[in-house]
What does this fold into?
Amino acid sequence: MNLTPRELRIFVSLASSLSFVQTADKFFVTQPTMSKMVKSIEDKLGVKLFERTTRTVTLTREGQTLLELAGRIIEDYEAGLAELTEVARRGSQKLAIAALPSLAATLLPPLIAELRQESPNLIINIHDVINDTALDLLRMRKVDFALSGLDVVHRDLSYIEIMREPFVLLGSDVIQEGRTLTHWSESELERLPIISMPRGTGTRMHIDLAFMKRGKQFRPFLEIQGLSTIGKFVTQGCGLALLPLSAAQLVFEPGLYIARLSDAPERTIGIITRHESGLSALATKAIEWVRTYASLQLGATHAMPENAIT
It folds into this structure.
């Protein structure tokens, strides 16, 4: 018996979907080819894995017994590949970082410019993603570290806070209501045409939680994922965006204003790494640079465009 990792994946995939059509599509082969491949797997194992009629596909008793073992083998194989890739990256001039889009655009460009000047052959991957995706990339060992918020304690991850930033209102001269609001008030915000990021993002989670603490439900006028798109809607006077300060700074342009609100909720931003794996010298250097830069540039007092804050 000499099953390949691909054959094991085919078995597990077909056992999960019980559809030759779906499994054939997933592995980019025709249905007759998939049938031949499954027959080859069964011949190698010496047992029948599936019972197939013109309408249904079911696992045999032997197939059910082998399914859990096959799944564990695939997990161990993929974990080993990920670890091998990580070890190789530590010894090479490669760096991969996951970061919230606003942080990727504000914190990382100076770092990358400096690293590029020191090491012209350096290969860098930046993933500007939401919080959950950043953590997934970190766990899959596809990035060295993440710049994001950590909403709960994760036993497999380490978190070092580097900054806190408040939520602010981003508005345009077309809608002046945001300028008159100086204090965070859920009741007052409910009266405004608020543009927010959708559920599932860290930004939205903080706002929802702030409203829930007051026994209210946050219902924005518009939900938009992309920061640049939010900025365009605000510029056209479609509403007022409720954003973290760094995100508002990122899309700020003439004709817009950023209104600070006293007692506004804050989000925490930090560097996230995995517990069980060491960092390359390059990743360690990048983390120290980010911590220093954040403390100087993105601490309690943010440098703002002139006349930006009301």
